């Protein structure tokens, strides 16, 4: 009977002249598997019960049992078996009678998707043999007792990542008997950084603990003169997150057969993390209005975003670069690809990838916003994923840049990477994917070009050191910052740096030479700009300093422009204009202070409290122009978090979040969020208003889930004040 039904099924497949089988890119869909697959006519007296029959399958899938312990998957909040590829795991099969190897024959079948096929790796039959070969599918009996058999099963090191269905098949003279579909035996197989044959193998245990198993991280933001940090909850082990991450690959329509390859997974994920062109996870918004959504600064981690997307299938509003990078990091670590979040300070967003950012000045030396299209982001976050690159020459494996923030299209979609960090450092930008774009983000030069009335362009200054001057990530095993700039570029001015640049140009990175334009910099006068540490809501002063190294007296007409900017370096408004004439005595330095009042900037302020100052000075005697620009980020007050009493897993505890409003105005529409992976699910609370100088106190009762050292992360968001964070490390005792 089963024979006829299955052939009818096959006839019903949608016909398509190009392929016999429809595309297979859903891990969730299933096919019907017959419990009795007859070899022909079945004799009348046949009774399947006379043969070896499976009564029960035991998967050893509890967190404290052997499989999850040995495979480092005991933290996943998921009742099913989760193992890593290329490493043996155990299951036990209980039969209706003792198993006799001489006469009985059974095998295992792992299936994935709607159209399982052996040559695609979506149908895997495993015969029971005498020995396991490293890195190849196989099974052997390790223990027999009464009616039970315990097997050790080895998966392939290139196995597809995802959720497999398990069947046990028994051979009888008249057909194959299979176990019923039982979702309790479903098995998730993940990447294995502990296995030397896996493409994501990492040899250092401390690094694996950080880049695969750590479920909280640090996002560095602010700017290069004033690095700020905040915690982010990755939460890759939380309930339903693994399923949500597998769903992203279905959403990206990545063929199941391609899901064993970390290069392909990273490439499609960098497109599906953002909602541009594929209705992906997060909708970006950089314009300071976040109607019908959550302000990017309010998120404290990835879990809420991924779960909302998994249930609604609609883009979650809103994100900016660190949100895209935080969610991408969760995705990578969840699947077992070692990953870290990177911040590049003074990141170039170069619209035509010519390694040159053009800032145009008018004939008075003010920036012409109409002509200036490129921008310098105060910082930009992306991710690095660790893998071999068999598609590139030897030496370009290791950390690869992947970026889910939609900036420019790559092969027609908003995505970026994976691009080898090593290739970027050495200028080998010919190797896929998107290396020229990343190279420009960390290596561009800033050209200050004055446009005269008749249209002639005169380059007044070239700044070769500002872009990508600091690239950082969180340290392994701690919350500190590690400077990894040297992994992306050689020291400024070194011979190697020059060579890397020439290589990049040879491989097609466009670099305009300065010969095309007249460029004669003013060398005997230097100008610098410093700002006092400034707290949000207070006045502060900035200082312009000139050093006249010549023997001449000069006068400089100086123009200072203070702008409120998005962290992407795009100006929202100019709030301060100040010009003065500076007298520069021979061989001496002189400083000029300018006071910035809070009343000048508070009404216009954007959420990251970023200012951008442009100072231009014209030396009247020579007509030369000096230019300097600086980003300043105000100190934003923090939330205070404390706990009451002892914290014990499973017992009620309470945490208190406090905040004092430092502004000279009432805060309206205040929203607080609190979360901690393994401690508590995100809790949100709306407060109407906080008058100036008054303190808000919020007490939350909760039951900590797991013992160990954990982190609580809170954020406050309101109309006038955003990017307010607090965090607390907590030790949760065993009950």
UniProtKB/TrEMBL annotation:
Pfam families: Transglut_C, Transglut_core, Transglut_N
Keywords for the protein's UniProt record, in alphabetical order: Acetylation, Acyltransferase, Blood coagulation, Calcium, Cytoplasm, Hemostasis, Metal-binding, Secreted, Transferase, Zymogen
GO MF, any single term: protein-glutamine gamma-glutamyltransferase activity
Swiss-Prot/TrEMBL cofactor(s): Ca(2+)
Record-annotated active site: 321, 380, 403
Metal-binding as UniProt keyword: yes
Signal peptide limits: none
SUPFAM superfamilies: Cysteine proteinases, E set domains, Transglutaminase, two C-terminal domains
Every Transglutaminase-like domain range: 313-406
Record-given protein name: Coagulation factor XIII A chain
Subcellular location: Cytoplasm; Secreted
Listed PROSITE patterns: TRANSGLUTAMINASES
Catalytic activity reported: L-glutaminyl-[protein] + L-lysyl-[protein] = [protein]-L-lysyl-N(6)-5-L-glutamyl-[protein] + NH4(+)
Cofactor note: Binds 1 Ca(2+) ion per subunit.
Residues the record lists as binding Ca(2+): 443, 445, 492, 497
Physiological role: Factor XIII is activated by thrombin and calcium ion to a transglutaminase that catalyzes the formation of gamma-glutamyl-epsilon-lysine cross-links between fibrin chains, thus stabilizing the fibrin clot. Also cross-link alpha-2-plasmin inhibitor, or fibronectin, to the alpha chains of fibrin.
Enzyme class: transferase
Cellular component, GO annotation: cytoplasm; extracellular region
E.C. designation(s): 2.3.2.13
Single GO biological process annotation from the record: blood coagulation, fibrin clot formation
Domain of life of the native organism: Eukaryota
Self-association and partners: Tetramer of two A chains (F13A1) and two B (F13B) chains.
